[in-house]
Amino acid sequence: MSRRPEFRLLTSDPATKARCGELLTSHGIVRTPVFLPVGSAAIVKTLTPEDVRGLGYDMILANTYHLYLRPGIDIIEKLGGLHRFMGWDGAILTDSGGYQIFSLSPLVKLSDEGILFRSHIDGSEHFISPELAIAYQERLGSDIAMALDQCPPIDAPREKVEEALERTYNWAKRCRVAHKRSDQALYAIVQGGLFAELRREAAETLISLDYDGYAIGGLSLGESKDMTYELVDISCSLLPWLKPRYLMGVGSPEDIVIAAGSGVDIFDSALPTRIARNGALFTNDGRIDITASRFKEIDRPVSDDCSCYTCRHFSAAYLNHLFKCRDLLAYRLATIHNLFFINQLVTGLRQAIMGGSYSQFRDTFIKRYHQTDEEARLENKREWLKKQKG
Amino acid sequence: MSRRPEFRLLTSDPATKARCGELLTSHGIVRTPVFLPVGSAAIVKTLTPEDVRGLGYDMILANTYHLYLRPGIDIIEKLGGLHRFMGWDGAILTDSGGYQIFSLSPLVKLSDEGILFRSHIDGSEHFISPELAIAYQERLGSDIAMALDQCPPIDAPREKVEEALERTYNWAKRCRVAHKRSDQALYAIVQGGLFAELRREAAETLISLDYDGYAIGGLSLGESKDMTYELVDISCSLLPWLKPRYLMGVGSPEDIVIAAGSGVDIFDSALPTRIARNGALFTNDGRIDITASRFKEIDRPVSDDCSCYTCRHFSAAYLNHLFKCRDLLAYRLATIHNLFFINQLVTGLRQAIMGGSYSQFRDTFIKRYHQTDEEARLENKREWLKKQKG
Fold first, then answer.
1. What confidence category does residue B302 fall into, taking pLDDT thresholds of 50, 70 and 90?
2. Please, what are the domains in chain A?
3. pLDDT digits 0-9 by tens, A8-47
4. Contact A75 B42 (CB under 8 A)
5. Residues B62 and B94: beta-carbon distance below 8 Å
6. In this predicted complex, what is the ipTM?
7. From B136's CA, which of A244, A347, B81, B384 has a CA 20 to 30 Å away?
8. B297 inside 8 A of chain A by CB
9. Are the C-beta atoms of residues B256 and B246 closer than 8 Å to each other?
């Protein structure tokens, strides 16, 4: 059944702005709040689509930028579209490529017309416009497409942020006009950096374009967590109650739990899978580093209360051994563990919201979950953002 | 049920020396001829034990050398033995470490007492003797253990090979005496380089020690295939008919099919899994290189007549994309394909032998299967052997 994805709000928590809903897509129903595993290049790293589904996920994120460069939109279209190409029959949200161009590729020239950029793979020159970003996503056949936006750096001065907002708004108008595919929803992205006022302005102007949904972009890029939460809360309060809100690139356990309280419906982040490959595994008490020698002889699973494939089959000692041997199985088992953890968390979160006990769920989780030291976190984040670009 | 693995010969092909049998172990019955996937460090690279079992394998090979260095025999013993440590409830054959010391680690001193060697991981100095090799394997708890041997280089002059044989024989005597574990079989290794006469001598002396089974070692190390097959045939003809024969480190599809005709029961080789990670995939027509650009748009599986997980779920184009992206999923899916192919081949081989049609099976397979060019193969082999040491 081919349909334009629709959002249906089911319930909201009486004490907060937390809410539960459903995205009805041609590729199944997706319950919200939902976390999307990142499969930029049509691969959720180390996992098969069957693994991802088995972990409880009904929707993933893929990236127009990555797929445009490799294997190319033409090939994917020729092979029957993105779902068929990668063997995933669940829903897919595609990012437009805007953020990736600014964060991954050497920029050549940015104009109102579009963006001239270089491939981070082979240095070749490419051009993307709002119309092309839409055309590519229509040809990929994702269930939800994103408008092309300009995401300024987190430390950009106000006038630069204003300039980017103005361009993002103009592009959003052009994307809205260009978009024709009837079985694909189109979301716009609210930018505005760390300026609450500009975010308000961005939200208001984009709402006037009547998009299917609204994303909050340009956050979790090096600012403090308190600042992130505050801006998410402000942005959500400005957005239409009956349309879905998607907080882009945010996905630590505590971020998901807290931002859901502001009314975020969709999350995506490479964090759970990326840190898994470095040996950082989620537990209800916080992250552990499975490569630490204290796990060398631990004949129990990583987490006693975890029922993921990894914890059901392997001891912490064996995982530690796999990481020491740098065997690829290590990265797969760690990815499975972290994605299972996030899905359990989001499932619990939905149940709590449905049952009217969101605040209690949040407080219990936050109290037990030992968060990464804020200063170390910001330092890591900056390092990672720098490395991405280089 | 804890039992000393026993070999039961079921049938032999009337026209050749090909045969079928069973290894009865405490961890299940293993039908022969059998191919053992290599899991040197208690990991069949990229796969879970469940994957390996699902591919039809009932026995794997692990390596005392690798496990001694990492995570250490103590840890594995403390965690309940090798089967439990790695979560594999099938049978395990452990190599003694002799071959790996000579091929992987900088040798410090070789004497009749044992071998002083350096770890290829951190350069630390270690000593192994026949008695220690047995003790380690008993503590690991493998189903079949191997005697410590000395494997001379393929181009060693006759006197060096004789010297190694003498030492291997003396060590085999000591291993036989040292071995106590009642639920573990012990096999000796016939060496002798490329000298048929020396192989005869080695076989005869080792047979007098009444081992549970006999391995043929030191082949497929850079000599021509014809030479390998000839020496395998000679070696097999010298070994006791009712005891299992294990051809070590040999495992290309054509090698397995041909050597089974000489009466080999057990094979192991890292080749199918190693070349998979380079994108070389087996088909009934020969190997293909899935990274080649001709697969970029192929919307069919790698092999139309293959029913492995990879071929059932993914197109050649998607696999090509995974390899281009260097995603770890590529290596896993390729490994699954190649191990499935080998198991299908060995299953067909057993059926043919049971049905008295081995020669026909061999001829049909060899006629269709395009073998790698012999000169290119030998060049690659030499390169690989050099790299292993460096």
1. very high
2. 6-275 (3.20.20.105), 279-374 (no CATH)
3. 999 999 999 999 999 999 999 999 999 999 999 999 999 9
4. no
5. yes
6. 0.94
7. B384
8. yes
9. no
